[in-house]
Request: fold
Amino acid sequence: MIQATNLTKRFKDHTAVDGVTLNVDKGQIFGLLGPNAAGKTTVIRMLCGIIESDEGEARINGMSVQQAKADFGYVAQHFSLYEELSVWENLEFYAHMYNISDEKRLSSLLDRYDLAAFKNQLAGLLSGGYQRRLGLVCALAHDPKVLFLDEPTAGIDPVTRKLLWDDFYRLSAEGKTLFITTHYMEEAQRCHQLAFISSGRIVAEGSPVTIKQAIGNAKVYSADISYLPELQSTLLNTAGMILVNQFGNELRLVVTPETRKSDLESTIGAITGKPCTLTISEPNLEDVFIALTQKSPVKH
Amino acid sequence: MITAIIKKEILQLRRDPRLIGLIVVMPLALLILFGVALKLEPQNVKMAVFDGDSSYFSNLIKTGLWSDGYFELYSVNDKQQIVEEIRSGRAKSGLFIGKDFSSLLTENKQPHITFYVDGTMPSLTTAMKYNSNSATDQSVTNDMYFLDENAGTVVIAQDPFIMDTEILFNPDEKETWFFLPGVIGVLIMQIALILTGISVVREREKRTLEQLLVTPMSKTTFIAGKLLPYIFIALIDFYFILAAGWVLFDLPQPSSHLLLFLLAIIYVAVMISLGLLISLISRTQQQAMFLAIFIIVPSILLSGFIFPLEAIPDSVRPISYAIPFTYFVDIIRGLLIKQTQFTDLLTAYASLLFFVFLFITASIIKFRKTI
Reply:
């Protein structure tokens, strides 16, 4: 449904997006995962035809982006509707931009997203969560086949986020293809397919399960140890260390396969003054995310 | 605390190099331009002359006027044409010398000649009247001696002839008649440039433009959709201001209401499309505002609205002709005060239309490029 071949975008002296090739099938929820400034928004803007790529090509539903405009909708990262227009006026405007004036359908869209009560309220006065819903409603006004969502749940509370995701699944079940950018692990895990972008390049792709294997044969250990600055710096300088990550009272270490568990345990024990037992752990997306984002590439 | 705010404001300003350019370079450029341009000493004011006499004596008068460098004389075929030349704007003044001038002069009968001035622009009228003295001063009259055949002596007449001054159009030299039509144009220019000047850049700042670009709308549709409502609003505003001028200041009625409407709609379209172009060029609303101001100020000073075009040196004159407002001033004064014919205003109308075309084309090209 969405095909991108070798998309490249340069801004002055730096390459924001470098040879990105993607393939998204119909009905899938595709997640483009990556840290800030990795090029996620630039990719989505090229796919939506807001900016032109310097190299490569994007096709949606088999057509060029410009020809396919009626087939996709776009929800920007920031609220980008008219604050001084009411909810209904915004929706009506976007529907008319696609030559759609089916009031019944538009009303039912408002109902579906709990916006009916705010129909006559100015969009600028809505709360963040409702603004996000209005953005989604406006993008859905013309019943697109593909929906692009740029960080759709950034800054949204967990309850609203879950509601939005329930809806994404429903849209996907209806046969719509969703393209989502995110830097939330929890969100990435909900996607059918993922591509991991770092510094403008796709560094890993596949299902959340296969992405976790991108960490290669590196080993992941975890232990019940709370944060100690001294410990962190010592571990970071330990040979074979790829990643040190603290989750509350859990310390997670990603190390090269040659690194010996007993060496690590004694290093930690020497600093904490208590014997330490590391348990081998499954890599989670967070480990992969941070490991892939680090400057030194992961050794496979 | 106050230093923190001051520092932050300065830092923010420094992050917008284009704005710094606008507030430093533009005033400098305008200062130099106005320094060169605004001299208030008209030169080469066109004078349509009918000399029915073509004698030694009438040539003395013409030479007297010519040698001053103030008037630039050219011949027309009859008295009627002098008025027509001034009505059309080709001449600002005229001189009529009757065919019996030299015979009356040599009979010492004090012939009359007529000096015509365009009264539309009172300041220029006063200056022209003052400079016309070179037709009657001593360097001319001293040479007007002739042989009195009866007495057999050479006669130097005291006041050999009399020059009558006739003020055409706006004979009372009403300043409001002169200023008000142009003022309407200035007001419309301000309203239009600021209305549309922020229209696109605002959508860019609020990020609604991005959302619009995803829709299947064409770039031309966007431009047209942005122009039309504002043209309509500014057009209504134009007539509102004009009506106020008619009611409050007894502004004269135009020679043709159709031509006035044509002017209104074309002029409004020029200003609205120029505003749109500003909006497409600007990155912030602040930049758009400054650009608008820097267009309005030279428009007022160099268009012939306040200072006559004749007072603007030849080197700067092309800039005057590159200002749409110049043509507006020309046409509206012609329509309201001089009852000028359409044929004489055709080039001015065509120039305004050209600006509409130019600004809209530039807007479309600019819009295609930025996105």
Remarks:
- The beta strands of chain B are 45-51, 71-75, 93-97, 112-118, 145-148, 153-156, 162-168.
- Chain B has a mean pLDDT of 85.
- Residues 174-370 of chain B form one domain.
- Chain B touches chain A at residues 206-208, 210-217, 371 (CB under 8 Å).
